[in-house]
Amino acid sequence: MQQTTTIFNPNIILGENYQIHVIAIEDYTQDFLEYMNAHFVSICEGESESDIIMVKQRAKSFFEKKSDSLKMGAIAEFIIHLYLKERGYKQECTFFNLEEGSIKKGFDGYYSKKEEEWIMESKSGKKDNNTHWGKVKTAYDDLKEKFSGNVANNPWKNAYNHASHIDVGTDKNLRKKIKLLSDNFTQSIYPSLKDFNLIPSSTIFLNDIWEEQDVSKLKGKLEKQISTFEYKEIIIICITKKSMSLFLDYLTS
After folding, report:
1. Which domain of life is it from (predicted)?
2. Would you state the pLDDT for residue 6?
């Protein structure tokens, strides 16, 4: 069974307690640009009411100082925020970190929809030596490490700090839930992946030459992986993007 939306037109594969969303971004259509303009500020800062020109300048300054690898990672995260917003998920974090000059640490994305929370981890790379299924596996493994406490920083603390920002507008009960998870983490009490909705995501950047994806092959590879994952429900997002320059050019437009 497949579903589509008007901006991204994803190919969506539905299974039992899992979804695979395959998205191709060859160019930015006018509808895409208008949608990004409408939500750029809220994705970056929440409901800050900042002027989009100023926020784009902040983003441009951030990207100018980063390696290609970090640029790819940040672009991938932003596009996933944009996609999930279009599908009705409320972003319970900001793209910008609470500290000036960096994107956020901890979980790459925390969302809510219909009384359920979803946690996203994004991985990206160039097509030359990466595959979607490889990046999805890395994203899932990173979530597993964070849930089991095998990380230096408390990801729930970061999630709580973002959710507590007034411009994010997170519900009080959800903030309390995240705060308890943060306190438990501090006491080495770790939650099970089986109790959470996960969104491990992959973005592959092509070398400015468009290539169609073999969705059937991707579906087979990912379904084998999913069978080994632990989760409550899971959404796999695979985005193929023609280049980084589309987004970087947008920041100066």
Report:
1. Bacteria
2. 74
Give pLDDT tens digits for 1-53.
334 457 999 999 999 999 999 999 999 999 999 999 999 999 999 999 999 99
Residue 176 has a CB neighbour count (10 Å cut-off) of: 12
pLDDT of residue 2: 38
Dihedrals φ, ψ of 9, to 5°? 50, 60
Angle CA(105)–CA(107)–CA(113) in degrees, nearest 5?
Answer: 135
| Residues whose CB is less than 8 angstroms from the CB of residue 174 and which lie 6 or more positions away in sequence, other chains included | 92, 112, 117, 163
Select from 214, 77, 72, 222 the least CA-distant residue to 140. 222
> What residue ranges do the domains of the chain occupy?
11-251
Neighbours of 224 (CB within 10 A): 10
The type of residue at 69 is S
CA 219, CA 222: separation in Å to the nearest integer? 5
Burial 17-45 (b: 16+ CB within 10 A, else e): ebbbbbbbbeebeeebeebbeebbbbbbb
- Assess contact for 46 and 98: CB atoms under 8 A: no
The span from the CA of 89 to the CA of 99, in Å, is 24
Question: By mean pLDDT, which of 71-75, 103-107, 115-119, 143-147 is the weakest?
Answer: 103-107
